[in-house]
Structure formats: structure tokens, C-alpha cells
């Protein structure tokens, strides 16, 4: 009985220890799982933080690269403008080549065409472009600049040209377009065309006949204004003369009445004297009848 009881106690002890071990394992597993979850949560936040830092760094690098690219493109565009200005100076030293300042409304460069003697013939506006794609909006803008500047011609210099100007030089919608390597030929052609047109106009003006000059004078607004002014003066003088004539006629009527009255009085006196003196009284010719 003691052995049986001992064995029962031993069995209960083993069962207790096994149960205790299972509980410990279960708690250990729970603790381990919880620790793993907590670590996973920490790792998750840490990973998100690292991703955020990486994204911010990438964005900053992209912004820096974009700014550097824009700065490089702007610098390249300014260098091309300087090259264009230098090329025009070298090709046509008699012309005035002046850059239009940044921020000022207008094209990039204004070329004033002059003869060898320094006479001004006209102007050409130049726009320099250095981009990867062509834009028809450049033409519209330059045409507005040409109208505002009253220029004779306008040209765009660009590495990229539209389909209509595949050869590298051509006219589109009233604006000349060329690649940088054809700037000088185009500048010389435009210079010659503007100078020839100015010379023809000068010669035509010199050949104008006297009749044409007289016609131009008598049909001008200035001549008409002068004639109208003269007619106003004439009408004013005529009115003054008429007013003076009326005034003088009134004065003359008065004098005539006075003279007649005086003459009538004298005739009466002379008649009385002649009646009293008889034939001895000498006659007064101015009082005698005509033919008497």
C-alpha cells in the first residue's frame, strides 16, 4: 500500500512537473511571440523611417539635378545669344547690333541695317532658342515684337526647326527660321534685301515729277487747311467792307441832305436879292439852270 501510494505520488509529481513545464513553455512561447511582435513593430517603424529618409534624399537630389539642368540650359542659351551677337558683328560691321536686356519686352537682339555711309535702312529682330523641341508659339511672340518695334524682318535661330524648314533655313508665317550654322548667310540676305528696298524708295522719291509733287501738295491736309484759313480771312474782310459801305452810305445821305438844304437856303437868299436889285444884280453861275 505504501509503494502504491508512493507510486501515485510520484505519478502526480511527474504530471505536475509536466503540466508546469507545458505552462512554462506556453508562457515562454507567448513571451517570445510578444517580443517578436514588439520587435517587428519596432522594425516596421524603423523601416518606414528609413524609407522616408531615403525618399526625402532622393527628392532633394532630383531637385538639385533639375536646378543644375535648368541653370545649364539657361547658361547654354545665353552663350548661344553671345555667339549670335558676335557672328552678326563680324559678318556686317556697318550695322548696329544691340542685345535687348533681360526682362525687357521684345526679342533677344536688334540689328539696325545701315549703308556704308551710315544711313539707316531698317531693322531686323533676332530670337535665339536652345531647346529640345520646337514651338510655334515663338513665331506668334516674335511677330508681336516685330509689330511693336516696327521692324522690317524677324528671325529665329534654333537647333530644332519645324518640318517646313528641314533644309535649315526658311520662312514660316512671315518669320525667318534658321539653324545656328546658317545665321551669317541669312543675315547677309536680309541686310541686302532691306538696303536694296531703301535705295529703291530713295531713287523713286528723287524721280517724282513736278506735277506729282504739285498734286501731292494740293491734295495734302496742310494745303487744304491753309486755303480754308485764307477763305475765312477773305470772308471776314468782305464782311468788314460791307459794314463800312453801309456806314458810309448813311453818312453820305446825311451830308447830301445837309448840302441840299444849304443850297436851297442860298438859292432863296439870292432870289430875294436879285428880285430887289433887278437886272443890275450879277448872276451866279452855280445857281443858274443848265443851258440858261
Itemize the secondary structure elements and their pairings:
Blueprint: H1 2-91, E1 96-99, E2 109-114, E3 120-129, H2 137-149, E4 153-158, E5 169-172, E6 175-178, H3 183-206, H4 210-218, H5 221-277
Parallel strand pairs: 3-4, 4-6
Antiparallel strand pairs: 1-2, 2-3, 5-6
Helix pairs in contact: 1-3
Description of the structure:
The protein is built from 5 helices and 6 strands. The chain is α/β, with parallel strands linked by helices and 292 residues long. Strands 1-2-3-4-6-5 form a 6-stranded mixed sheet. The model has no long low-confidence stretch (mean pLDDT 80).
Question: The CATH topology of the domain at 77-206, please?
Answer: Trna Endonuclease, Chain: A, domain 1
The count of DSSP E runs of length 2 or more, i.e. the number of strands, is 6
Helix/strand-derived class? alpha/beta
CATH class of the domain at 77-206: Alpha Beta
What is the N-to-C order of secondary-structure elements (H for helix, E for strand)? Answer: HEEEHEEEHHH
Count helical runs: 5
Q: How far do the termini sit from each other?
A: 217 Å
What's the rounded overall pLDDT mean? 80
**Residue runs with pLDDT of under 50 for 5 or more positions:** none
Largest sheet: 6 strands, mixed
Can you tell me the overall shape? elongated
CATH architecture of the domain at 77-206: 3-Layer(aba) Sandwich
- Adjacency order of strands in the biggest sheet: 1-2-3-4-6-5
Strand content of the residues, in percent?
Answer: 5-15%
Portion in helices: 55-70%
Radius of gyration: 58 Å
Organism: Candidatus Gottesmanbacteria bacterium RIFOXYB1_FULL_47_11
Protein name: DUF2130 domain-containing protein
Pfam families: DUF2130
Region (Disordered): 20-42
